[in-house]
Structures are given as structure tokens and as C-alpha cells.
Design brief:
Length: 426
């Protein structure tokens, strides 16, 4: 087998792995997102986004007036910092490519080309979303928007490659020091671009050329020193987890596989409030004991705790952009219902353990009522308080808190009564 044929076969292998990766994500998406998710969440969210996007172009919205250039810098910085890359190699390649270094480099090269195409596409979407804001409200020109797209694309490539290289070669505290220095440098680089460079086309070309040279140099040394190690496979698992975790963690209840990356730690981290001997309730009985088990399980499960925070962040963002009191109330009630669904699914997941078979269904329902109150209370108070304060200042804060608690109580009691009737009939 000659060299060209070897290269073609490794190229075909890499392309096949890329296709399989996207096919796997699509299959999981179909499994996790059924018609109810489309009807109650995705379609309404898309509708609200299209409504706001249209009004951004028309200049009819008032909230963009509060956005200045520094907010755009922060948004661009955060978007660039999300850049990650994956090398499309597998553990079996350690044996296959033991004597075929050129084929292994071909897979690395393919991974970098895939990173470039993905970066150009994602940054294009990001700039398209910001386009009416930049043109209508911040008075950028179309040429300056294209300059933003170019610099974002190249800087995101540098960030992804540098992140990957650092994780492969540096360990312990030096890793975090280098990453902190990287993010500080990226922020300063983006700040200099928006404040100074964007006003001069020639300075922009110099900054773009420097960024491009950094990316090419990092890519060259990474491909030149390409070799398989356990760290690469761990980084690939972390990458897949970042892409799929938010979706899969919520789909585990309906039967989809849980793909959750767990970072290896020498010592397991625990929150101070949930230590081994922490006691939440003064009265020591079976009801409080079951509730305490579930609450501690949530605090010690990083994936579900992050999911809880993601729901709150999504609610705050939606309430911030939605206009109109009644529409805000509908969004608030919807997210309280989402919090209930989250709490119920997590509660059900914990109660599947054989330990809870020792208790009767009546006690489980009683514990569920009180436990769901406790699990939903922080998120409900935060979202309700944000809605009231953002709409009617402090007076609205008090009214919204009362209304949010009433909605939460109504949802829990209605669901518990329906469950009790179903069990009694059974």
C-alpha cells in the first residue's frame, strides 16, 4: 500500500468518524426531544426570538438602548472562550497506527480542518444574531461587522487549539495559571480590537495577521508532535460531555443513555452545607430523613445541580427579553412548571433506589410534597423576585414573590392529589 492510498484511507476514516459523531448527536436529539418539548418549549422560544429579531431590525425595541460597546466586548469574549476542539482518534488507533505516523497525523490534520469549518459556521451564526443590534443601535458599518466576524473566528480557533495543547502538556496548578493568563489575554485582545483596531483597517489587518500566525504556529506544533495518549481520549470525552450533557442529562428519565463526563479528582469535592454529618431538620423522623437524602443527593450530584442552575439562567434570560406584563407572567409560570418537572424527575430518580422500597407509598407521597417544596423554593423565589423587580421595582417584587409561591403550591398540590387518586384506584 503506497503513501497516497494510506492517506486516503485515513482521511476516509476521519470523515466517517465526523459523520458518525453528528449522526449520534442527531439520534440522541430525536430520542430526547419529543413533540411536547417542541410544542411547549422550542417553538414558543423560536417564535419569541424571531419576534425580537424582527423588531431589532425595525428599531422598535427599547432594551437594546441599554447595551453599549462594553457589553458587546463581554459577549464576544464569552463566546470565544467556549471554543473547544476534538481530535477524531479512538483508543484502538494506538495499535493500528503504531507504525503509521503519517496516517495518525492525517487524522489530526482532519480534526483541525473540521475545527476551522465549525468555527467559521458558529461565529457566522453569532454575528448574524448580533447584526441588527450592531447596525441599528450601535451604529457599526457592514465592513466593521465583517471585521468582527474575521477576528472572532481566528481568536476562537487560537483559543480552542491553545486550550487543547495546554490540557495535553501541562498538569496541576500550572494548568489553571496558564488558562487564567490565556483568558486575560483574550479579553485584552478583544478590548483592543473593539476600542482601537476597528477604527483602522490597516491596524485590523495587522491584528488579524498576528492572530492567524498564532493559530498556524499552534496547529503546526500540535500536528508535528501528534501522538496518542490517555489525555486525548479524556479530552474527547470532556468535549462530548460539553456538547451533549445538557440534553442527555434531561433525557435520562425517558430512557436515553446518560453520557456524563466525570473528571478524576484525588479528593472528592463536597459543599460545606452537605458534609457527611450535616443535619437539615431538628426532628429526626422517617419523613425528614427521606427528604434529607434527596437534598444531599442533589448537592453532591454535579450534573443535576448544574442543570438546576441552567434552568434558572434560562428563565432569567427569557424574562429579561420578554416584554409585556402578561407575557412575563406566562413565562414565569412556564419556568415554575419546568422547575417542578425537574424536581419531580430527580425525586423519581432517587426513589428508584431499593432503599425506598422499605417505605409505603403514602409516606413517599408525603415526603414528596415537602421535598418538592424545598427543591423548587430557591428557583421559584429567584425567578419570581426577578420578574417583579424587573417589572415594577420593589412593590412588584413582593407581589411577584407571593404569586410565584402560590403557583408553586398549586402545581405541587394538584400533581400530588392526582398521584394519590391513581394509587388509591390501583
Amino acid at each position: 500500500m503506497n503513501k497516497d492510498k494510506l492517506f486516503n484511507s485515513s482521511l476516509e476514516l476521519g470523515l466517517n468518524r465526523v459523520r458518525n459523531s453528528y449522526k449520534q448527536k442527531y439520534d440522541i436529539w430525536k430520542t430526547a426531544v419529543d413533540y411536547s418539548v417542541w410544542v411547549y418549549f422550542i417553538i414558543p422560544i423560536i417564535g419569541v426570538m424571531l419576534y425580537h429579531y424582527y423588531n431589532l431590525w425595525m428599531g422598535n425595541l427599547e432594551w437594546p438602548l441599554a447595551i453599549n460597546e462594553f457589553v458587546v466586548i463581554i459577549m464576544s469574549f464569552l463566546f470565544v472562550c467556549l471554543s473547544q476542539m476534538k481530535i477524531y482518534v479512538e483508543e484502538g488507533d494506538q495499535l493500528v497506527f503504531l507504525q503509521r505516523k503519517s496516517n495518525l497525523k492525517s487524522l489530526f490534520l482532519l480534526s483541525y480542518w473540521h475545527l476551522i469549518i465549525k468555527s467559521l459556521f458558529l461565529n457566522g451564526l453569532f454575528v448574524i444574531l448580533l447584526f441588527p443590534l450592531l447596525i441599528q443601535y450601535l451604529t457599526y458599518t457592514a465592513t466593521e461587522v465583517m471585521m468582527i466576524y474575521c477576528i472572532l473566528s481566528v481568536v476562537s480557533l487560537c483559543t480552542a487549539v491553545f486550550n487543547h495543547k495546554v490540557y495535553l502538556t501541562v498538569k496541576s496548578i500550572r494548568l489553571y495559571i496558564l488558562l487564567a493568563c490565556l483568558y486575560i489575554l483574550i479579553f485584552l485582545w478583544m478590548y483592543a480590537f473593539y476600542v482601537y483596531t476597528i477604527n483602522s483597517f490597516y491596524i485590523f489587518l495587522v491584528q488579524l495577521l498576528i492572530s492567524l500566525m498564532v493559530f498556524l504556529y499552534l496547529s503546526y506544533i500540535s500536528i508535528r508532535d501528534s501522538k496518542l495518549s490517555s489525555t486525548i481520549f479524556e479530552l474527547n470525552a470532556r468535549y462530548e460531555s460539553m456538547v451533549l450533557h445538557f440534553l442527555l442529562a434531561k433525557s435520562a428519565f425517558i430512557g436515553a443513555p446518560e453520557f456524563v463526563y466525570t473528571k478524576k479528582r484525588a479528593k472528592k469535592f463536597r459543599f460545606l452545607v452537605v458534609g457527611k454529618n450535616s443535619v437539615f431538620f431538628k426532628q429526626n423522623n422517617k419523613l425528614n430523613g427521606m427528604i434529607e437524602v434527596v437534598i444531599k443527593t442533589l448537592f453532591r450530584d454535579h450534573s443535576w445541580l448544574m442543570m438546576y442552575g441552567q434552568i434558572i439562567v434560562a428563565g432569567v434570560v427569557s424574562l429579561w427579553f420578554v416584554q409585556g406584563v402578561w407575557l412575563k407572567l406566562i413565562v414565569l409560570i412556564s419556568f415554575i412548571a419546568v422547575l417542578y418537572q425537574f424536581a419531580f424527575v430527580f425525586w423519581y430518580r432517587v426513589f428508584q433506589h431499593s432503599f425506598f422500597e422499605l417505605f409505603s407509598s403514602v409516606k413517599l407521597i408525603g415526603a414528596s410534597k415537602k421535598g418538592l417544596y424545598i427543591l423548587m423554593l430557591p428557583g421559584t423565589l429567584f425567578l419570581s423576585g426577578f420578574t417583579g423587580y424587573h417589572t415594577y421595582s420593589f412593590l412588584g417584587l413582593l407581589v411577584s414573590l407571593v404569586m410565584g409561591l402560590f403557583v408553586m403550591y398549586t402545581i405541587i398540590m394538584t400533581a400530588s392529589n392526582l398521584t394519590s387518586r391513581f394509587l388509591n384506584k390501583g
